[in-house]
Amino acid sequence: MSPRTRLGAAFVLALTVTGCAAPAETVPSSGPSSGGSPAQQVVTVTSCGQELSFQRPPSRAVTLEQSSTELLLALGLQDRMAGTSNLKTEIPPRYRAAYERIPVLNPKIITSEQLRAATPDLAVSPFASLFTKDRAGTREELHRAGLPTYVSAVDCPDLAENGLTPFDLLFQDYENLGRIFRAEERAAALIAEQRAAVEAAAASRKEATGRPSILWLYSMFNGVPYVAGDGGMPSAMSELLGAENAFDDVDELWPEVSWEEVARRDPDVIVIGDLSERGRPGDSAEEKIAMMRENPLAAELTAVRENRLIEVPGIEMDPSVRTVDTLRLVADGLRRLGRVR
After folding, report:
1. pLDDT at 160 (0 to 100)
2. Residue 260 pLDDT more than 60?
3. C-alpha torsion angle, residues 336, 337, 340, 341 (rounded to 10)
4. 207-336 maps to CATH 3.40.50.1980
5. Where are the domains of the chain?
6. What is the per-residue pLDDT across 225-235, written as a single tens digit (0 to 9) for each?
7. Per-residue CA distances from 135 to 8, 113, 139, 153, 290 (Å)
8. CA separation for the pair 197, 191 (Å, rounded)
9. Which of 40, 101, 143, 197 has a CA positioned 20 to 30 A from the CA of residue 165?
């Protein structure tokens, strides 16, 4: 039996590919499920142009990146997970016990061979870029082998162009995965909790003093800053808080910029991503602050001179189940700095 045939035999879920997005549907199956039990409901969702149909909940899901891992853990699905991969930082304490029960298939980027060896019935990723021939395999070839692949709505350009915010797209992921795993109540509770946090942040916009500009500093390589550009979660959080992303006019998620350009814009506040657990030079918030104070241009920024600095976990600058935590941190920081009454 060929590897593809063996893989197809291990998978139990059907997948149909389409070219357009559609809302999730639940339709009755055409007959009773195996074992004489009552008929299952077939759940159909669309993920970045592929329509996925599930007659029963997945029982061997594999996640391709930490944010997908933490989302499934937040939905209480650890018993339905056959493996994780691509850990970027420490798992938060609230998920750690559940996480430690799941095999780590690769601490970095999973290969196609490792993914297939786990005999999964669903692969979940926040990024389409992890589904390539030199990584987990393309979505098309995994589909042909019988493996459904779910990509976060945040990474689907067509959805973002519909005017949905990154938070809207995250909530769509929660709803879709809740339906796929028949965990709708948990998904609804998570959406309600995070929507309340988003609404609380939006309420603070009315109390903002002026419209402060925020530089979202993600990383520094050889002293060169990488900051948030247009279209990402930092722009959405800035807007919610009555502020503006200082580099919202740059059509790139995380562009490299010069300190000369940062000085020209002279942001009111700098949000600094702490990536200390990644372990590269300049990753920690402490190192970034020290480097700014030593750089002649950066040291003269108003935010640096007046210590208008807010530290957040760097991983939470990207869309994930943890991003609302950084939204709260920045809201509190703006209030502490007098930018919100």
Report:
1. 62
2. yes
3. 70
4. yes
5. 3-11+57-182, 207-336
6. 999 999 899 99
7. 19, 9, 11, 20, 37
8. 10
9. 143
